[in-house]
């Protein structure tokens, strides 16, 4: 049995060394889910499928845990309690969707970009660096001054006749001015550096946000809000603080190391030899451990993000959580993710701690060694007491600086991975080409819309073709309705018309011009007005929500739009009127009220084309009638595309198109289609039955 264990643990160690990239440490042959006990000792559990299709679980465990011998414990438990220990399934869990490039390590830190950010503040930065260097030089110089004073004091003992004040005056004044200089430069570099740091961080944040806003819809289909917010806040923050620390502490420590080493060499080459032996080993060890820690740091940050995601989702969907009494579940999930995050961070702390403790021990040993050797040299008369004193203080400066560097090292590790993640998205270019800048002048705009041989699949699901060779003409000023059961691609048509996505094949034309040639801002901001099924309002006043369509609209225009949208009456009835706050996503309003404010918003835009994507389907029939009336008023004289599955809303359309699985199966007016007794007729029948049964 011992042999089996040995084989297992060797296997573990070797795998760690050989496959550090894939993070696979420990292959578990048992096909059951491990219990929470085991989970505590492993970082992650993955299922792997080999070529024969056999599934096996992989337990991933960190090198630090391997170091602490926990792996042996796992082996032992595995061998002793093979069955029950591994058989408990994890409870209260669900797959947490993450962004697709989660473990993509290719996002390297973009140094050029960083220099680009620093360039505008180069003078500030240079001044800060110069001040930091000055502090470092002073720190190096001060021990020499101390040595001089110690020598004066030592001489005093030998020669009692000298005037103490006279002797000590000059060196003391010099030392005081050095101290004052050091204080002044310390103030300068901290002040200047915080200016550079804050400005760069703020610019990075702005650029990141702008870059996120620029991305394709496909990007948002796959990204999670929590993760994006994390990049915008935590990552930028981490990067900033690490940047500041590196410049201030790192630069100072480095200069101090170099400077002190030089003075050491001047004071005593013998003693310095001892010091120098230690430095390279620290550097080599540091580089090696650094690469491990950086990876761990990335993992920890990713995990922190995951915890945020769980919380963010639960908080923003509080009604759903309540309705399913899911609070406990959510709390459990959150604490689990938090614990894993804490554990990873603790591992990181363990690694950094081990590294620093080791360095410190090393360096302290070095100081001790110096003391012995220094004492020896002093006893043989090769060094004065002042020299030994200066040497010791210098050696301690080196020791402290190197210790500081090793401490900084943690910050650098964190900053590089945080910065890498920020730059990754700042540098991300949207795949959709939005360079076309065509605009049709308002009075030349007709509003003819045509879908020509359009084939489309969502980028997130390229294999599922939603529309195939889809053709549809919507003449200017007419109302065309698209009906069909859910999931048939109706909203997809809207998304293509708004150019949220580009078609794979074919064209979408407005007034005979391909959508891709238009200026997107004009297209979405001026030409098209979209009112969707679940309009989302911003957490601000009613007035500002309506004004969102046209930021420079006057109050009178806003009110006029609200009147057209049949919203004026109920808004007036609120105590605060148009200044009523609507709550997050408009939660403080009823569905019908929200919908009418959304209509007012679209009306204010005054677009030649109005698109209604099931705009009334979430409403009861009483509010539907009110909203329907509002829509009819708003739609007068415009090209209208109505999407509906409730047929009562489309009876008056000039043309009704029935969509089935992304294809048009019937086309005509209400009367014509009814006579066909096909899909449309079936839809009517179905809805009649539904409304009969609900009566
Ligand atoms: N963002 C998306 N990413 C991938 N697939 C999507 C996306 N949105 C919709 N789909 C899929 O496209 C199909 C058509 O959806 P949709 O146009 O919303 O239907 P409808 O509006 O007719 O109910 C559905 O099968 C749906 O699963
Ligand atoms: Mg839809």
Automatic annotation (TrEMBL):
GO terms for molecular function: ABC-type oligopeptide transporter activity; ATP binding; ATP hydrolysis activity. InterPro entries: AAA+_ATPase, ABC1_TM_dom, ABC1_TM_sf, ABC_transporter-like_ATP-bd, ABC_transporter-like_CS, P-loop_NTPase, Type_1_exporter. Residues 126-414 form the ABC transmembrane type-1 domain. SUPFAM superfamilies: ABC transporter transmembrane region, P-loop containing nucleoside triphosphate hydrolases. Residues 449-686 form the ABC transporter domain. The chain crosses the membrane at residues 123-150, 170-190, 273-293. Its main location: mitochondrion. The keyword Zinc-finger does not apply. It is a multi-pass membrane protein. CDD domains: ABC_6TM_ABCB8_like, ABC_MTABC3_MDL1_MDL2. Keywords: ATP-binding, Ion transport, Membrane, Mitochondrion, Mitochondrion inner membrane, Nucleotide-binding, Potassium, Potassium transport, Transit peptide, Transmembrane, Transmembrane helix, Transport. GO terms for cellular component: mitochondrial inner membrane. GO terms for biological process: oligopeptide export from mitochondrion; potassium ion transport. It is found in: Mitochondrion inner membrane. Belongs to the ABC transporter superfamily. ABCB family. Multidrug resistance exporter (TC 3.A.1.201) subfamily. This is Mitochondrial potassium channel ATP-binding subunit. The lineage of its organism: Eukaryota, Metazoa, Ecdysozoa, Arthropoda, Hexapoda.
């Amino acid at each position: 049995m011992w042999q089996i264990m040995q084989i297992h643990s060797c296997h573990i160690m070797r795998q760690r060394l050989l496959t550090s990239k894939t993070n696979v440490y420990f292959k578990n042959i048992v096909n059951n889910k491990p219990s929470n006990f085991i989970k505590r000792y492993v970082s992650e559990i993955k299922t792997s499928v080999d070529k024969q299709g056999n599934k096996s679980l992989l337990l991933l465990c960190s090198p630090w845990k391997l170091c602490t011998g926990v792996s042996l414990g796992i082996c032992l438990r595995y061998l002793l309690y093979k069955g029950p220990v591994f058989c408990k399934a994890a409870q209260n869990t669900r797959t947490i969707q993450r962004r697709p490039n989660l473990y993509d390590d290719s996002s390297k830190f973009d140094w050029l970009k960083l220099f680009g950010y620093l360039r505008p503040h180069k003078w500030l930065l240079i001044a800060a660096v110069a001040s930091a260097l000055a502090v470092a030089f002073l720190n190096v110089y001060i021990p020499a001054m101390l040595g001089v004073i110690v020598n004066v004091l030592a001489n005093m003992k030998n020669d009692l006749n000298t005037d103490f004040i006279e002797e000590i005056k000059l060196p003391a004044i010099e030392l005081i001015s050095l101290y004052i200089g050091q204080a002044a430069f310390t103030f300068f570099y901290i002040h200047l550096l915080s200016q550079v740091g804050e400005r760069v961080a703020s610019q990075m944040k702005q650029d990141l946000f702008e870059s996120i806003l620029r991305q394709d819809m496909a990007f948002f289909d796959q990204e999670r809000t929590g993760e994006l917010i994390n990049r915008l806040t935590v990552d930028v923050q981490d990067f900033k603080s690490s940047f500041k620390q590196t410049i201030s502490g790192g630069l100072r420590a480095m200069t101090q190391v170099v400077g002190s080493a030089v003075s050491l060499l001047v004071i005593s080459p013998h003693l310095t030899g001892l010091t120098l032996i230690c430095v390279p080993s620290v550097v080599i060890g540091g580089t090696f451990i650094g690469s491990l820690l950086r990876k761990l740091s990335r993992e920890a940050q990713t995990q922190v993000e995951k915890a945020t995601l769980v919380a963010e989702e639960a908080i923003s969907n509080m009604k759903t959580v309540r309705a399913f009494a899911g609070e406990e579940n959510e709390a459990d999930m959150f604490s689990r993710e938090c614990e894993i995050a804490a554990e990873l961070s603790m591992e990181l702390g363990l690694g950094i701690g081990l590294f620093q403790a080791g360095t410190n021990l090393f360096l302290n040993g070095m100081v001790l060694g110096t003391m012995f050797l220094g004492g020896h040299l002093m006893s043989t008369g090769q060094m004065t007491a002042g020299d030994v004193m200066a040497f010791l203080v210098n050696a301690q400066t080196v020791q402290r600086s190197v210790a500081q560097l090793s401490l900084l090292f943690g910050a650098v590790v964190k900053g590089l991975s945080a910065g890498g993640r920020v730059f990754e998205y700042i540098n991300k270019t949207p795949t959709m080409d939005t360079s076309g800048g065509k605009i049709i002048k308002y009075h030349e705009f007709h509003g003819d819309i045509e879908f020509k041989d359009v084939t489309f699949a969502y980028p997130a699901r390229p294999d599922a073709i939603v529309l195939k060779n889809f053709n549809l003409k919507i003449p200017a000023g007419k109302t065309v309705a698209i009906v069909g059961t859910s999931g048939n691609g109706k909203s997809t048509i809207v998304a293509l018309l708004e150019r949220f996505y580009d078609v794979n094949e074919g064209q979408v034309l407005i007034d005979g011009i391909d959508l891709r040639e238009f200026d997107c801002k004009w297209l979405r901001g001026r030409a098209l007005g979209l009112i969707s099924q679940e309009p989302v309002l911003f957490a601000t006043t009613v007035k500002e929500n309506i004004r969102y369509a046209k930021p420079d609209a006057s109050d009178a225009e806003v009110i006029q739009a609200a009147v057209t949208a049949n919203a004026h009456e109920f808004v007036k009835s609120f105590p605060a009127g148009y200044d009523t706050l609507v709550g997050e996503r408009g939660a403080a309003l009823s569905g019908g009220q929200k919908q009418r404010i959304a209509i007012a918003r679209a009306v204010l835009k005054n677009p030649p084309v109005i698109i209604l994507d099931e705009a009334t389907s979430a409403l009861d029939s009483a509010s539907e009638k009110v909203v329907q009336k509002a829509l009819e008023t708003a739609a007068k004289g415009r090209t209208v595309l109505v999407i509906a599955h409730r047929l009562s809303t489309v009876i008056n359309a000039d043309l009704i198109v029935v969509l089935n699985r992304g294809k048009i199966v019937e086309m005509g007016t209400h009367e014509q289609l009814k006579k066909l007794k096909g899909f449309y007729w079936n839809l009517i029948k179905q809805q009649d039955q539904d409304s009969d049964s609900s009566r």
